[in-house]
Amino acid sequence: MASHKLVLLLPVIVLFTITTGYVMASPPAVKAAYWPSWSQTFPPSAIDTTLFTHIFYAFLLPSNVTFKLEVSESTASLLNNFTSTLHQKNPPVKTLVSIGGGSSDPKLFARIVSNKGSRSIFIDSAMEVARRHGFDGLDLDWEFPKNPKEMVDLGQLFKEWRVAIRKEAKSTHRSPLLLTSAVYFSVDFQWDETYRKYPVASIAKSLDWVNAMCFDYRGSWDTSATGAHAALYDPNSNISTSYGLASWVRAGVPGNMVVMGLPLYGKTWLLKDPKVNGIGAPATAAGPGDDGILTFSQVVKFNKENGATVVYDAKTVSTYSYAGTSWIGYDDSRSTTVKLKFAQALGLRGYFFWALSYDSEWEISKQASRAWIIG
């Protein structure tokens, strides 16, 4: 991979008044998080809504036969509880239902977007489910379109989805549903065998914002060395949050339509030599946790129980800890704050967390909310 030197240009905010006297207002900030619906110990009632503006229900899946969201009775009850609980909270938050997820079949979405008929079925079903269960919007998490054609088809889906949303809102006299999408950290996939790029023009015209997933740069698929899996900067490559976010803006997606993803979990490795323990240190296998992953609350517990050494790395803007041969790379309150300052300097809309229930006593969520206000 070619190294990349990022030049960060601070956004220039230009206010102009048109002849009628109106001033163009910036869209409200997004402080969001995805709620894993399979969490048995973290119900919607446990969410501190003072820290967020939007909560995503994760996930619903379309049928691979009908392309509709076929909601069972038990899921319907869960959806209704999710929206009613969060709308009744003080303060209330906006709710969006996210469709897909990392474990969903990307080929299914490729089939759905491949022709107008299947796109229409999917769009109508998604909107009907959102309205029936009281959601404020819809989010698509397709990981990921595999080739240029699928990217073109995705752009067509977004265009038709926006048209449908406007038509429905006009006919029902209701506020339009929000429409967002979880996307790759970078606007293009230049490191894969098949180069492809997101449909920027369609996204800019059709979506409210994109959720850039700025994490999982490193993991158990490469056990040879430790790594900062959500590094803001990478001195050796373009696989970094700074490069990815700037690529979206450079490509033509307005900064106020880009939301930065933050991980509430760490990636782990087993060190080859406990005395060699920095980022990039030789490793032999994935470390503690399921497939080398620990939630932030588990990281906090591990550090305390094992007397781990905790290090903030300014070069990558990340944190890591180690005890014996166990090594964990993650974000804490300090690295998260620096990332948020970067996002604000770039003129971004806000941030989101994956996943809501992974925090430790709201430690990072509280710091993020404070940092964005102060920013």
Automatic annotation (TrEMBL):
GH18 domain location: 29-375
InterPro entries (UniProt xref): Chitinase_II/V-like_cat, Chitinase_insertion_sf, GH, Glyco_hydro18_cat, Glyco_hydro_18_chit_AS, Glycosyl_Hydrlase_18
Record's GO cellular component terms: extracellular region
Top-level taxon of origin: Eukaryota
Signal peptide start-end: 1-25
Biological process according to GO: carbohydrate metabolic process; chitin catabolic process
Gene Ontology MF term list: chitin binding; chitinase activity
UniProtKB keywords: Glycoprotein, Glycosidase, Hydrolase, Signal
Similarity annotation: Belongs to the glycosyl hydrolase 18 family. Chitinase class V subfamily.
Protein name, UniProt field: Acidic mammalian chitinase-like
Organism: Populus euphratica
